[in-house]
Amino acid sequence: MSRRPARADDAQPTGDAAAGPVGSTGRILTVPNLISFVRLLGVPLFLYLFLVAEAAGAAVVVLAVGGLSDWVDGFVARRLRQVSRLGELLDPVADRLYILATLVALTVRDVVPWQFTVALLARDVVMTANLGVLRLYGHRPPPVHYLGKTATFVLLAAFPVLLLAATVPGAATVAGAIGWGLALWGLGLYWLAGGLYLMQAVRLIRATRSARAEVG
Q1: What SS3 string covers the chain?
Q2: What digits encode the pLDDT tens for the residues 131-146?
Q3: Against a cut of 0.85, is the pTM above it?
């Protein structure tokens, strides 16, 4: 008996996506989606405060709120059973924009070295290529894994602490140690999560090739 290719639709959901079958909805105006929209507005606000207005204190607050809301919107979605397909798209988009905007801004102001920025962005380049290959085989992006969410949360927690260390001389020693500890931990988890996504992709592609060979 021939096997169907294992598509993303067939994969067992992990992480936040696991709540989908229980309370998944196609609605747009939900509480977690509104939180995600507000998070997106925080990206240009942070860039303006940090790079234009040079209000470092306010920029730290925006980053801290943005990082905390990354956890809040997922918690609210599960608690209120308002997990939605739009929310599953908005959440990772907001995460990537926060990380990208913060990295660019902190690198421009020499808060983080360019080597760290390259190491983080290289992982996103690899993941973008991975998604492109999956689409060629007819698969959607794999469900979000808890390890990936953890890595993102740790990184978003590290950035405001690093900014605090760079802008408040009295906090430089303690905040710098904490910030870089979180940043390096987050970088390691980020790449480890990327490795898991690559392994998922390899399994899906092998299953698709096997199924096509049997049909052919």
Answers
A1: CCCCCCCCCCCCCCHHHHHHHHHCECCCCCHHHHHHHHHHHHHHHHHHHHHHCCCHHHHHHHHHHHHHHHHHHHHHHHHCCCCEHHHHHHHHHHHHHHHHHHHHHHHHCCCCCHHHHHHHHHHHHHHHHHHHHHHHCCCCCCCCCHHHHHHHHHHHHHHHHHHHHHHCHHHHHHHHHHHHHHHHHHHHHHHHHHHHHHHHHHHHHHHHHHHHHHHC
A2: 999 999 888 877 777 8
A3: no
